[in-house]
Design brief:
heterodimer; A: alpha+beta; five-stranded mixed β-sheet; 5 strands; 21% strand; globular; B: FAD/NAD(P)-binding domain; FAD/NAD(P)-binding domain; Enolase-like, domain 1; 3 domains; seven-stranded mixed β-sheet; 25 strands; binds flavin-adenine dinucleotide; binds FE2/S2 (inorganic) cluster
Amino acid sequence: MPNVTYIEPNGNQREIDVPAGWSVMQSAMSNGVEGIEAECGGSCACATCHCYIEGDLAAAVPAAAENELAMLDNVVAERKANSRLCCQIKMTPELAGLVVRFPDAQS
Amino acid sequence: MSAGMVIIGAGLAGLTAAETLRAEGYEGPITMIGDEAYGPYHRPPLSKGYLLGETQEAQLIMRAPELIAKKNISMKVGARVTAIDRAAKRVTLTDGSTLDYAGLLLCTGSRLRPLPLPGADTLKGIFGLRSLDDSKAIAAALETANNVVVIGGGFIGLEVAAAARKKGKTVTVLEAADRLMARVVAPLISSFYYDLHTGNGAEVVLGAMVSELVGKDGHIAAVKTKDGREFAADLLIVGIGILPNAEIAQAAGIECNGGIVVDACSRTSDPAVTAAGDCTARRLADGSFRRLESVQNAVEQAKSAAFALLGKEREFNAAPWFWSDQYDIKLQMVGLTAGFEQVVTRGDPATKKFSAFYFKAGKLIAIDSLNQPAEHMSGRKFFDKGVSPTPEQAADTAFALNTLLA
Ligand SMILES: Cc1cc2nc3c(=O)[nH]c(=O)nc-3n(C[C@H](O)[C@H](O)[C@H](O)COP(=O)(O)OP(=O)(O)OC[C@H]3O[C@@H](n4cnc5c(N)ncnc54)[C@H](O)[C@@H]3O)c2cc1C
Ligand code: FES
């Protein structure tokens, strides 16, 4: 299973195997990673699953769709060039080794 | 141990309230009691991806139990509160045990409105959709069913109808009103969705008053309507709305009126008790009551409810928003359409990308966006900032709505 490194707001790092087809949000939630709220459950409606993609693999992540771009407008923490909503990132073998950092605030 | 905060209901509102109490620095005991077999899970996918097998049960989890425990929130599932003693500040559970509280949060959600017809609770093959168990049962029944009849052309009924069509079933939607989702959207949106569902092969019958359930060998076989028509059904989905779970509050003498009455800060008639989510009816400034059934409402009211018990005022005044996924259309709604006088469309419905702007006395009151997420987000900001485009600006796609927000 491809793995993702999650960096919690306090800097704590957690490396987790994410089943292909799961979103980066879902595996954070089912593994108890801190730093997102994901109120809408991955429907791209709440903007409380904001993350920053770190490192080289950022380029391998498929670009955000129109829906996600619109919702990114609503994030509470600073929106950066590498800002994404992690419920919209589906795990694939190409993304093995992905590093995502969660901001201090989601709402 | 001193009495702490007790939360009745382990759904979205309950979880949000618990986490908000901790985030706001509350250090006393928090106990969240839920009568389902599961900890908090997301309901919206139950009528969408979960029915199609695209979302698995483990993906519905809102919080891993270890994260709840780490926040020192004690969660009891499979436990039901049966009574509230406000004088003693104590709740009683099904097993007879009791729990004292300093503050009580009612996050009891809602339940399905039953179909008031003989056979509705005895025939096999009849389901409503509220819980994970309901969705599991429907998903299993869909494996063998051929003729699916859905009573109720609201969001959940239509989402289930779309899922059943995607699984290749014969689908009939019976709606009592003369259009779909009549309670919340304008006629032009209703007719767009009528075309969407019929275009995908479902039969949609408007003005259909269901009068009889026909059983065969203990299983649903057909549904009859008042005008004498009969629709074969081996799977019947009832989606005729919900009822707030307000009974234990009412029995305890807390003011209820079509839900547990709360103010903008989620306070009930008892200062030691707050309420949030589907179980509430919010008293508005003009004295009327409003009940919302949405993710946003559950989250926002729960945050306010937690604040209120800590002695802090946090009003929930943002414009309501909601979404629904049916076939390839994402409907996003913001504001409330009630009492609209004028509707203008922005974009061409034939492209399946457009918005409907609702006006009352010349002022924007709601927007329904279909596959137009940017317009939906602009809409949320219009309401946040209290600005309104004119109907002419809204209808003119050459006019950039964002210029009004600058
Ligand atoms: C199929 C479906 C699809 C939906 N789709 C959308 C959507 O697309 N967008 C959207 O915004 N909203 C949607 N909703 C609505 C949204 O899920 C609800 O508004 C939200 O779940 C309300 O949260 P809540 O915490 O108030 O209630 P609930 O989630 O119902 O939680 C309340 C919990 O309390 C428990 N409980 C009740 N009484 C007691 C008691 N006495 N003791 C112990 N426990 C008790 C209940 O069993 C339940 O588990 C959907 C709902 C359903 C059912
Ligand atoms: S979980 Fe709501 S936008 Fe990602």
